[in-house]
Amino acid sequence: MAFPGFMNIAALTLCIFVLANCNHQVQASSRAFSGKESKISPGNGLCASWVTIHGYKCQELEVTTKDGYILSIQRIPEGRSEVKNNVTKKKEPVIVQHGVAVDGATWFLNSPKQNLPMILADNGFDVWVTNTRGTKYSRKHTSLDPSNKKYWDWSWDELVTDEMPAIFDFVSKQTGEQKINYIGHSLGTLVALVSLSEGKWVNQVKSVALLSPIAYLSKVKTVLGQVGARSLLGEKKFSKILTKYIINVFFNCPILGENCCLTSSAFQQFLKVAPQSSSTRNLFHLAQTVRSGVLAKFDFERLGSNMVHYGKLTPPIYNLSNIPKNVPIFISYGGRDALSDVADVKRLLNEHFRNHDTGKLSVQFIDNYAHLDYVMAANANEIVYKNVTSFFQRQW
Ligand SMILES: *[C@@H]1O[C@H](CO)[C@@H](O)[C@H](O)[C@H]1NC(C)=O
Ligand SMILES: *[C@@H]1O[C@H](CO)[C@@H](O)[C@H](O)[C@H]1NC(C)=O
Ligand SMILES: *[C@@H]1O[C@H](CO)[C@@H](O)[C@H](O)[C@H]1NC(C)=O
272: how many CB neighbours lie within 10 A of its CB? Predict the structure, then answer.
């Protein structure tokens, strides 16, 4: 079935409001969009639940950010055959960063031959799987409890300023200051693009792969614009609708971008691990991006607050043209993706990657891929992950 470019309002409304009711775990409160409840006991962390059962080594580690979040991170230091043959050699590290409303477990829903972290490990990489603050395995903080409103006072700005730098520093330290490869999906791509444009990572990063890149979200705006008089909706209402939209994209709402190649077993597993919690402010911030079409820091929407945080009335703009031209970047986007829309990705490429160094940019378009295919399509290994590993290896 061809993906319809135009969304019928009745069908869309049905999709947003009916499907949203299917996943009753989704609740937006004033502080957090809460997903799966977190019940972890020793011995059933991500490594034990998803990785070591397949014969891979896996270490549970913790990274503390400048703003006090204690993140769980899993390291798969080598491939399965190396465990058997007891080979050790120096490996290039790669960070694998998930998107919004999911966590690191989402990468592991398919078999070892099909999932990205294990494929990377089998191809000679030292793999580091991250879990964003607030998700199931990353609920600790040096002083705040998740029941405290303050715990949720962050948006993707803080992922750029505090979270990713802490992760890069940690991985760098643990690997003898080797340069680091990075793979992001969805929000993990926005964080990468903004980090690079802000001059971060530059001395630490080797290559970057962006799967389903999101920066401009004009398609989302067009679609949500039909839901109601957009300009009349308050920010809260709008961000609630956006949340449902995002969840529906993840949950395979057909008219919002039918995923091409998900197996039903992987999808059944997906329902067990998603959605994951995030902060309301994070979703507000995404909603602001959708509405304004401009990438900027979080807008506190009270003049005084912006003044206190930024020393000016409006939030500073992020300029993606400042991404260094010599960073090797692999981008893959799908023709049926309702978040990372084709026109939006083209705008990103045209506006900010025209002058990227030749040979340092590789762009892949996959006609029948939607958002979730990049994480768990049965054929993602053949179609995407092989290209990612060979792109990384070409930079050696
Ligand atoms: C693996 O190799 C190391 C040294 O290369 C050795 O010390 C260790 O005992 C070996 N482990 C196994 C299980 O063979
Ligand atoms: C963004 O940066 C580029 C070059 O780094 C500059 O030419 C352009 O004017 C900037 N855009 C804005 C909106 O500041
Ligand atoms: C991806 O891999 C296929 C087959 O290996 C190759 O034909 C294609 O050019 C690659 N595309 C990119 C963008 O690397």
Answer: 9
Q: Is the CB of 294 under 6 A from ligand 2?
A: no
- What number does the ligand 2 atom closest to the CA of 322 have? 5
Measured between alpha carbons, how far is 15 from 246 in angstroms, rounded to an integer?
Answer: 12
Ligand 3 atom nearest 364 alpha carbon: 13
Q: Name which residue leads in pLDDT, 74 or 44.
A: 74
314's tokens: 């409006």
One DSSP character per residue, 2-32 reads PPPSS--HHHHHHHHHHHHHH-TT-EE-SSE
What is the spatial distance between Cα 265 and Cα 263, in angstroms, rounded to a whole number? 5
**162-194: pLDDT as tens digits:** 999 999 999 999 999 999 999 999 999 999 999
Place of tokens 């715990």: 151
**CA atoms of 308 and 287, how far apart (whole Å):** 22
Is the CB of 319 within 6 Å of ligand 2? yes
Q: How far apart are CA 52 and CA 309, in angstroms?
A: 44
In the chain the domains, ranked by start, together with CATH numbers, are 6-394 (3.40.50.1820)
- Strands 69-76 and 59-64, by their bridges, are antiparallel
Give the DSSP H/E element, type plus range, for residue 220: helix 218-225
Give the three-class secondary structure for 49.
Answer: helix
Q: Which residue has the tokens 């979703």?
A: 283
* Secondary structure of 143-164 in HEC code, one letter for each residue: CCCCCCHHHHCCCHHHHHHHHH
- Which atom of ligand 3 lies nearest, measured to the CA of 362? 13
Active site residues: 186, 337, 371
Which residues, listed in sequence order, are joined to residue 73 by a DSSP beta bridge?
61, 130
- Ligand 2 site, residue 321, Cβ cutoff 6 A: yes
Average pLDDT, the chain: 86
Please state, in angstroms and rounded to a whole number, the distance separating the CA atoms of residues 87 and 85. Answer: 6
Q: pTM (2 decimals)?
A: 0.89
Task: Quickly state the pLDDT bin for 67 (edges 50, 70, 90).
Answer: very high
Q: How many residues does the chain have?
A: 396
Ligand 1 center to residue 89 CA distance, Å? 13
**Residue 159 DSSP code:** I
Q: 393: Cβ below 6 Å to ligand 3?
A: no
For 236, other C-beta atoms within 10 Å of its C-beta total 13
